[in-house]
Amino acid sequence: MVYGLFLTGCGPREPVVKIGFVAPLTGDQAPQGQDMLHGAELAVEQAREQGPVLPGHRLELVALDDQRSPTQAVAVAKKLVADRDVVAVVGHLNSSCTMPASAIYHQARLLQITPVSSNPQISRQGFDTFYRTCATDDLQGPAAALFIATTLNARRIFVLDDMTTYGRGLANEVIKKLAALGVDVIGHEGITQGDKDFMPVLTKIKALNPDALYFAGMFPEGALLLRQRVQVGLAARFVGGDGLFDAALIELAGPQAAEGAYLTTIGSDIHQMPTAQAFLTAYEARFGPVGAYSAYAYEATSLAIWAIRQAGVKDRAAVLAAMKTLKDYQGLFGLQGFDERGDSLIRDIGIFTIHDGRFAFVKTATWD
């Protein structure tokens, strides 16, 4: 799937400068991927309204589908690298896709900004082409653990994850912090993305009588866990990570089954940020309700556009060099900046609950 304007006819084609965009645009995670794409599209549309990002060039967004598959992520990364008009990439959604793709972009010296891949190990590879606009799971995990222990007062926790780079990494961070807090982790198991029947593992967990069940994974499996835990009569509080933060979770699980669940997010509530109000108005007028990751994709794309304007030429090395000069960029979440690894200096973690069929913001969390 490719989005962009392609001119035909006998005349010369208008010069273009391209930003690649990659996320799961089909399959079970498509709701999040499409919401991210809309954020990127809005950033590009607004940039075009401000005039050419480079003299004589049209800005084009090239969107590709990685199908949440690491193998496919590498394939589309190579496709973007082969297109010399592409000078920056916004993507991917899943850490398991960003991790292998980041090596492809680094080898090509192509700027990559992931909106939401939160596994901390990605930036620890030492790739100076890598940036991300979200907080990392070594903050999100401890924040969830602290909330479970001190606000929910849970003492016996069972942990599930989806065995992906994101899910297993986040689960391990939660477990590490729970252990430091003296909370008993009575079990830790993995499930597989795409599976539909979690009744056996939930029945096993019920027999252990935990106070809380923590799940590190994505919303399609999270919704099934929420619904099936009711069917087996598991009374434990349900807590999850940001991969659950999509309206489709509530729709798939059903409002009653989802009621009272908690989740952490890799940022605070976008609706409460004064710097994001113009974005929210424009996005909702163009696409409808903002998705969980729409703002992050908008931010990442806007940063790529800024770097291209600063570079002043269609050259990957110049765009990457321009990105390295960024400091105190006024973004949606406040003054944006990055550390030496490319991790965002904005490190808010939010906590939400599900109430009356909607996500309700609880508070901005702490992790120590």
Your description of this structure?
- The protein has 368 residues and is α/β, with parallel strands linked by helices.
- The protein folds into two domains: 16-134 and 273-336, 3-Layer(aba) Sandwich (Rossmann fold); 137-265 and 349-364, Rossmann fold, CATH 3.40.50.
- Helices cover 40% and strands 20% of the residues.
- It is built from twelve helices and 14 strands.
- The strands form three sheets. A seven-stranded mixed sheet has the order 7-6-8-9-10-13-14, with helices on one face. Strands 2-1-3-4-5 form a five-stranded parallel sheet, sandwiched between helices.
- A hairpin with a 2-residue loop joins strand 11 (329-331) and strand 12 (334-336).
- Helix 2 (70-82) runs parallel beside helix 3 (95-107), helix 6 (199-208) crosses helix 7 (219-232) and helix 11 crosses helix 12 (316-323).
- The longest helix is centred in the first third of the chain and has 20 residues, at 30-49.
- Residues 1-11 have low confidence and may be disordered.
